[in-house]
Amino acid sequence: MTLTKENILKLISVIPDPEIPVITIAELGVIRDVIIDKENVEIKITPTYSGCPAMQRMENDIKEILNKNGITNLKITTIYSPAWTTDWIPEEAKEKLRKYGIAPPEKTTEDKSWLTGKSKIVLCPRCRSKSTKLISQFGSTACKALYQCQDCLEPFDYFKCI
Amino acid sequence: MTSQEILFTYTLRLADNALVLGQRLSEWTGHGPFLEEDLALTNIALDTFGTATSLLEYAAKVEDKGRDADAIAYRRNEREFCNILLVEQANGDYAKTILRQVFVDAFNILLYTELSKSKDETLAGIAQKAIKEVTYHYRHTSSWVIRFGDGTEESHNKIQDALNELWRFTGEMFEMDEIEETLAKQGIAIDAKAFQAKWEKQIDELLTKATLKKPETVFMQTGGRKGLHTEHLGFMLSEMQTLPRMLPDAKW
């Protein structure tokens, strides 16, 4: 395999998120850049949340898949700027989240309506009802909140919009 | 002090504030008043530790003496910690924990907003990341302050007691010394005094909504930056540092 940015990206883009395996770490927006310098490969990643324990696992997964393909002169660097945002998650990936039972982030971070006390309408991923309520602002992982549908009564995770 | 030592000290102060508060919050894990709040505080602790880790790693790099982030966190004694006194105060009841958190969240929103424009790229990047998280925390903790204050007589009294006790630790957040002033002039550190009035206005509005009254006369406590702490920090560190000190080479 020739060492090109495209080839490296092809290999690592398919790695699933360790906690939400229906989307890849590329769709999540964690991979920011790949730099090739002769035999050396540097991969720049950015954390979703500062303390997200899945980041270590993602680093290990990247190393493993590249080592398997004979790439060992490898450096993974964490960058903080620009800060990760759910706006980077493409529509197709949001649809995958919905099918998996997780309500994807509603709208974008540009929407500041919560500042005026209005909360977002989060659609139930199961029956698409608009009648849902926030159970807890924090959920099973750093990136999620807990909601419940008032119509089909399904409790569900909501991927926080940040 | 060399410019390297100055930057190290400033970064360490930011890191210690996050580290000590993160440790305090994590003490609630498994002890929250109910499941959702247990999750909330654990998540807030995780974000806070995340910021602490980024800052400690940067401090280690700036110091360049072969210590890593863990060595700085686990192998320093009480007098070497330079966090403000507010974050080390014992958790008390839930109202006290929430009030301490709201003071820090409101402060951090203002601090990180400014720090995200710092000329130091690493500090700016860490701040850009943290600002989103602390804004989310503030939404949660400020809503609890109102619920406690404007709730039952018992919840009101509990958070009013917490306010009477904790208010004297809020002044220290806005203190500036030579280190901070030097770095502020270079566009690296933030002049916290400059946004003190903004913080007070925001907190006053919140307290009014929550029907709470600030204590009228208080003598603001200080000393954390110089390593002069309240009795609480030593006990907290002894628990936090036991394992790495007993088994220095232990690995997960």
The protein's oligomeric status is: heterodimer
CATH topology type of chain B = Ferritin
Mean of the pLDDT scores of chain A? 90
Q: Roughly how many Å apart are the termini of chain A?
A: 38 Å
Low-confidence stretches of chain B: none
One letter per element, helices H and strands E, the order of chain A comes to HHEEHEHEEEE
Query: What can be said about the biggest beta sheet of chain A?
Result: 4 strands, mixed
Total number of strands of chain B? 0
How many distinct domains of chain B? 1
CATH level-two architecture of chain B: Up-down Bundle
Please describe the structure with a list of short key phrases separated by commas or semicolons.
A: 162 residues, alpha/beta, three-stranded mixed sheet, 4 helices, 23% helix, 22% strand, B: 252 residues, mainly alpha, Ferritin, 66% helix, 0% strand
Structure description:
The complex is a heterodimer of chains A (162) and B (252). By secondary structure, chain A is α/β, with parallel strands linked by helices. In chain A, 23% of the residues lie in helices and 22% in strands. Chain A has helices at residues 5-13, 25-28, 54-68, 91-100; strands at residues 31-37, 40-45, 74-78, 102-103, 132-136, 144-149, 155-159. In chain A, the strands form two sheets. Chain A has a four-stranded mixed beta sheet with strand order 4-7-6-5. In chain A, strands 1-2-3 form a three-stranded mixed beta sheet. In chain A, strand 5 and strand 6 form a beta hairpin. Chain A is elongated. With 252 residues, chain B is mainly alpha-helical. Chain B has one domain: Ferritin. Helices cover 66% and strands 0% of the residues of chain B. Chain B has ten helices and no strands. The radius of gyration of chain B is 18 Å and the shape is globular. The A-B interface holds A 47, 49-53, 79-85, 114, 135-140, 142, 146, 160, 162 and B 36, 39-40, 42-44, 46-51, 53-54, 121-122, 124-126, 128-133, 136, 139-140.
